Every structure is written in C-alpha cells, then in structure tokens.
Amino acid sequence: MTNTDTNILRAEKVSMRFGGFTALNDVSVTFPEGQLTAIIGPNGAGKSTFFNVISGAFPPSQGRIFFRGKEITGVPQHRFARLGIAKSFQITNVFPQLTALENVRFAIQCMSQRFNVWTPRGRFREMEEQAAALLQMVELDKHHHRLAMNLAHGEQRALEIALALACNPSLLLLDEPTAGMSPEETTAMMDLIIRLAAQRTVILVEHKMKLVMGISNRLIVLHHGELLAEGTPDDVRANDEVRRVYLGQGNH
Amino acid sequence: MIGGYPIELLALQLFTGLALGSVFVLLAVGLSLIFGLLTVVNFAHGAFYMLGAYAGVFFIGYLGNFWLTLAVVPVAVGAVGLAVERWLVRPLYGRGIDYPLMLTFGLAYVLVEVVRILFGAEGMPFDAPDVLMGAVDIGVGYFPAYRLFVIAATGVLVIGLWLFLERTSYGLVIRAGARDAEIVRVLGIDISRVWLLVFGLGTGVAGLAGVLSAPMRSVFPDMGTSVLVEAFVVTVVGGMGSLAGAVVAGLLVGIVVSMTSLFAPAMSEVSMFVLMAVVLLVRPQGLFGKKGLMG
Amino acid sequence: MTLANPQEELNVSGRRLAGLVALMARHRVAAVLGFLLVFPFLLPYEALAVNILIYGLFALGFNMVFGYMGVLSFGHAAFFGLGSYATGIVIVHYGVPWLPAILIGVVAAGIGAAVIGALATRTRGIYFAMVTLALSQCVYYLVYQLEDLSGGENGLRGVDVYDLNLPGLNLTLLDPLTKYYFVFAFVAVAVWLFSRILASPFGAVLEALRENENRARACGIDVARSKWLAFVISGLFCGLAGALNAIHLTIVPIESLHYHTSGLAVMMSLLGGMGTFFGPFVGALTFLVLEDVITLVTIHWQLFVGALFVFFILFFPRGIWGTLLHWASR
Q1: Whole-model pTM?
Q2: Which residues partner with A223 through β-bridges?
Q3: Cα(B271)–Cα(B61) distance, rounded to whole angstroms?
C-alpha cells in the first residue's frame, strides 16, 4: 500500500479513558515527516497519555493511529522498534547493571538476533562498533565500561537516547528528555536533539514551552485531553486560546 | 433428575461444595489481604492453617470449650504472624518481591517441623462440639450441621471483614493497597502498625480456617501442603487483592471440585486446575482482578 | 549480577576480580568440569557425588529462569519429574535402551515446559510463582492417578539399567565410579551447552529481561515469547537431570513431582548463588552434604533446612559463591 501521506504519523479521533476518567478526548493530529514536532501543554493536559498511545505503550480506548499510512493501532509494543519507531521514557529506563556499551550493544542486537541461542556474542564485532559509534554521538564515549546505574542523571538520559537510536528509527519519540536535568545538561540535550532532527522525524513531549519554541517546526498544544491548537511556533504564540491557557496559568 | 442424578443429591453436593469453598474463601481472603497491602505472597499460608488446627487441638485440651477455642485460635496464630512480619518479613521490603516469598517458603518448613517435634507425626483427632454433631434437614435432604456452621461462620467473617475494610481508617489504608501511600501520612497512622495488623489478620484468618477444618479433615503436620496449592488456585481464579474475588472464586472452586467428585471422581483433584487454566487463557488477571497486575 | 558474558564477570559491581577467581570466570566451563572430574575422589562415597551432579544440573537449568532471567518459578519439579517418569516408564514398560530413554525423558520435560510455560507466561511478576506451583502440582496429581503406568503413590520401580552395551567396552553401572562418570558425561555436555546459550544473543535477552523488562520490550523483545523459550530450554536441562536420576536410583519416587522438589531447586540456587555459573553446583554440594551430615544426628533435617534458607535470605542473599565473588572484587 503506497503512502499517499506526507505525514509519518497520524492520530485519528484518539480517545483514552481510564475507568471514569477521560484523559484524551477525540484528538486528531498529523505529524509531517522530517520535521521536529513538539507536544506541549500544561501539566495534566494528557501529553504523556497521548505519547504513550502513539508510542505503542497501550492502545487507545477509541480512535486509530497510522504510521506512513499503515494502521498501527493495537500493534504490540515490541513491534514498534522493528517498524522504525523508537522511544525514550519520561523516567529514565535503561539496563542498570549492564555497562553503557552493553546497553547499546543489546539494543542493536535486538534488531537482528533475538532468538539466537548458539553464536557467541563476541563474534558480532560490528554490533560493538555500532554501539561505540552511537555512544560517541551522544557524547558518552568515555563511559563505555561504566555500569549504567553509576552514570550521572544527564548521562543516563543520553544513554536512553542512544538506546532509542539503536534501531535506526525513522521516527524518534522523546518523552520530556530534559526532565530533572541541570541547565548545562539541558542545553547539551537540546543540541543533540537538533542534530538528530536533521536526519529523522522527531516528536517531543515537553512542558517547558520556552525550550521548544526555538527549535520546533511545529507545535501541538493539548489542554484537558483535547487539541487546543496546532501550527508553527508563531501561529501558536499568536493563538488567543493558547495565550489564555498559558498566561492564565503563569509562565512555563 | 438431572443427568441420572436426583436433584436432591445434586443440591446436597452443592452444599458440600459450599462448605469446602468456605474454607477456600477464608484462605484466599487471608492471602489476598497480605498481598494487597504488602505485596507479599505468603508461602507459609498453608503452615499457618496447620498451626490453627494444632492450636485448636492444644486449646481445646486446656479450655474444654469449642467456642472459646474458636475465638482464641485466630488470635494465637495471628500473634505468630505478627512476630513473623516484624522480624522476618519486614527486613526484606526494599529488596524485591521474590524475597519475602522465598522466606515464607523456608519458614513453612520450620513451622511444620516444630509442630512435628511438639505433637508427633501422627494425625490427631479433633471433634466438633456435640451441638453441631449430626445432620440438619435443609429441605433437599440431611446435611451435616457442622458444615452448615462452617458456611455460616465464613459468611459472618467475610461480612465483618468487609465492614472493617469499608468503615474504618485502617481499612481505608488497606484498601488503598500501597505500602507507603500518602494516605497514611494524611490520616496520621503509623504504617508499620498497619503492616503488622494486616499480616496478623491474614495469618489469623488462615488459622481460623485451620481450626474450622479440623473436624472435617484430620489434623496432621503436612495438612497445609495441599491447602497452599488450593489457596493459590483460588487466588489466581478470583484475582489477587480482591475480597469479592476471594469469595466468589473460593465458592466456585469448592463447588467445581465437589460436583466433579460426583460425576467423575478421578478428575476431582485436577478439576480446579482445569478451571485455573481456563481463567488464565480467557482472563489472566482473574475474575475480579485488575488488569495490569496480571496479563 | 551480570555474569553471563565472561567479560562482564570481570566487572562485578564495577570492580575487577582478583586472580584465581577471575581466571575461573574466564574459563568457567573448564573450571566446573575440571573440578567435577576429580570430584568423586573427594567424597566419602560415590552415590553422594552422583546426587550432587544430578541436583547441580537441576539447579543449573532452573537458574536460567531464576538467576539469569530474574523470574521465580515454583514449578520446575514438573520438568524434573517428567524427565524421570518418561525415562523410567519407557525403560520399565517398553524396554527402551538407556540412550533413547534419556532423550525421551528430556523431550517429555520440554513438552511439559512448553505447555506450562505457555499458560504461566500469561501472568506477570509475582503470580508466576503461584501459577507455576499450581500447574506443576496438577502434573503431580495426574501422574499419581495414572497408577498403572507410574506406580502411583509408591513410585515407579524397576528402572534397571546395568550394562551399558557399548561396543568394545565392558562397562556396568553397578560399579559406582562408572556410574559417576556416566552421569558426568551427560552433565559435562549440558554444562557446555548452558554456557554457550548464556554467551549467545539470547543470553543477553535473558539478562535484559531481568534488568528492565519494559526497556527490553521497547527495544523490540517479544517478552512473553522470550520468557517461554527460556522456560522451555530450562525445562530441557531439568528433564535431563530427572532422566539421569531415574537411572541412578532405579526408581522414580512420586515426590519428584511435588513442589517440595521445586523448592529444592530454589534453595540450592539461592544457597549457591543465583545468576552465577558455579552457584548451582556449589549450592547442590552444600545442601546435599549438609543433609547427609545432619540426618546422621537428627530426623528433623527439615527444620534445619528451613532455618538455613531463612538465614541466607536475610543475611546472605548472594549465596555462597555470589558472596565470594563479591568479596573477591573488593
């Protein structure tokens, strides 16, 4: 089926209910290929829920998700990496007692060798080299043999990005990548994201509006689980609804 | 007649199932309580059941009165449970969910062997009180009075437990189901006291199940071994952490086993596992379980 | 503790291991087999040595799921028992020679693991222990009922394999030392295979599942299927142990299928050191030697076992070998 969409990802009438609580209500949104789109909104807007739905953590109560024109609603999480969709988690999620290199080497291995019970891992030299290259890209090349749990917080988040990159994704989903970071770490992370966005589509969830205004091609604003506004940063900045919601809630 | 069996026989067998199921309910309730708050699967639960039966033998010798014994046994067994929680299980809370499980497994060996040393390996009799001997006409036939009593006693306990969980602040904390929830600080309750209470309550109820069972099954050191498996099956079927699940699943399993022993006696022991397998295939979180805890 | 890849074994908790221990870690298969080769000469009698081999293998297989993948199963008695009974039954009732009989035992255990694993992997976390215990106990009840085949309560008797019928060699299992090396041959192959699997990409999958299941899933691992595969492989190893046990004892006791036997695997693994290569054999050795010694003094061995296990869980959760590794890495 040819993709007549220039959108790499499309969410159609997505709703999500947890018991009696509606976290997302009828959200329809498109994400153009090759661009950096940020999903923003005040806390509780439903950003994380939306992120979880589009990244495959759980299917929506209602609605559909399309990747390059093909429906992926309800596809189990473990298939996403092979489709070329990679994610990073809001709370750092790495393999604590493996070294940084082993972390990334494993993620690369997952792309081709999941059930091989025979060949010694040491034979797959290229995987180690690729892992080293990825660690260099996220500036962790001095920490190959440090256990992930012994890395600083910002380094762990960088490792998380390296893990996501291991599957060579065409779509990279990042959930609050700068959470808990110092200003220097945040700047480094944003630089990395800009570099990554040059080569693939990036969708970013962030509640600090200032961070994403300068770097995004498009913004999607959620509020109380509904789509409030979408468009270029300028469009969104000029949007009255957005101003009311954000200015009314103080500066973000 | 249904399937060649008179309705009266089927009804009586159903009641037998309810009596059997009542013991399952008590076991599952205790297990579920302990798991719900402490995330501990008590592999010594069968041993506490056994302790209850032996405590019954011990106290009835001293007190001479069945009803008093019935009141004292859960307290005595619960006291052992309190000690176990405080000194053996609590140090393991930070460590990972498998450790308390393994510890209680080892503890079961200790408890069984201690009982064997104190009371010997032979089975001991435990008689129901005279007033409950004999059978009662329940309309479809004569049914042992003692078993009716067990069904009734379980009902009373479940209702009492429900009231406790719904109406008291300790109950609220337990229902919230977290080991260190905000709710505890808000209510100004000492959480370690709640841990003690829950473990004591859970094991106490297991002990009660043991002493109630004693006149129906005999009393011997290994009596908790098969009971542990039955308790697990009921819990998987009903869903962990749910009082309603424990009640429904307990009675259901009791009835299934009882009816199977009528129609296909060789399969009666295996029937509960078939039920469990079906539940696992169709609804892995159990009948009343929350999704995300299972499957 | 990451010890599947020999490279990692040198970085326990980020520190380098000292001398001999590091050397052993690098050549773990040779170290284990070398020790086991001379083992019977270190013990008072060979039957104990054979038991240690067999239960060490049992614990080794169990460790794949428990120590390396981080999942607690209480149902591995089913695989040990199925291996024993399948091998025993085809020898007793159908006169099958020992080699195909052992293979049949292994396959039977594998099938059991496939079925139980398929049901059990539908659950998560702590439920796995309960479900596996219940399902394996179901196997116990089933085999108990099939009295004509299995001997019911009394177990299966008459698993008599004496002459090995190997061309050119006059070997009989009536000689204790021959029996030891017979069992050792199988255990050696098993240990080598086990090491190979741990060093493979699937070995890394096991550890990833232990470290962070959600992350593994996001990386593309089908968690349920991987767990199932690990369960089946583990079952095959335990089945081999059971098959060998049937021939060693010439009987198959019904207790082989009871969850107490599952508990043995758990206890030996913890005692020795979960997730370590030497742990299972160290655990089996410690457990069985202690049992031997203590039952000379009292019949209440179970009390001691339980207390010892509780003690280790509270104070030495790394087990004997694990604690040794930890100290050596200071």
Answers
A1: 0.91
A2: A226
A3: 38
| Beta-carbon separation of C5 and A146 below 8 A | no
d(CA B45, CA B28) in angstroms, rounded, equals 10
pLDDT confidence bin for B241, thresholds 50/70/90: confident
Look-up of token digits 């009292």: C298
Residues of A in contact with C217 (CB under 8 A): 77-78
Task: Name the pairing type of β-strands A21-32 and A201-205.
Answer: unpaired
The mean predicted confidence, pLDDT, of chain A is 89
DSSP string for residues in C75-125: -THHHHHHHHHHHHHHHHHH---HHHHHHHHHHHHHHHHHHHHHHHTTS-T
For residue C200, the chain A residue with the least C-alpha distance is A120
Give the whole-angstrom CA distance, residue A87 versus residue A160: 9
More confident residue, B37 or C214: C214
| Residues 226-245 in C contacting A (C-alpha not used; CB under 8 Å) | 226, 229, 233
Query: Residue C246: CB partners within 8 Å, gap ≥ 6?
Result: C83, C84, C85, C87, C88, C91, C105, C156, C159, C252
Confidence of residue B177 (pLDDT cuts 50, 70, 90): low
Measured between beta carbons, the chain C residues lying within 8 angstroms of B95 are 317
pLDDT digits (tens, 9 = 90+) for C212-224: 999 999 999 999 9
CA dihedral A158, A162, A168, A170 (to 10 degrees): -10
All residues of chain B having their beta carbon less than 8 Å from the beta carbon of residue C130 are 41, 232, 235-236
ipTM of the complex model: 0.89
Question: Quick one: how far is CA A115 from the chain centroid?
Answer: 27
Helix or strand (DSSP H, E) at A138: none
Question: Which one of B91, B235, B273 has the shortest CB-CB distance to C314?
Answer: B91
pLDDT tens column, A126-185: 999 999 999 999 988 888 999 999 999 889 999 999 999 999 999 999 999 988 888 888
Interface residue C133 vs chain B (CB under 8 A): yes
CB-CB neighbors (< 8 A) of B109 in chain C: 302-303, 305-306, 309
**Tokens representing residue B51 in the block:** 């302790």
Work out the percent of chain B whose per-residue pLDDT is above 70: 95
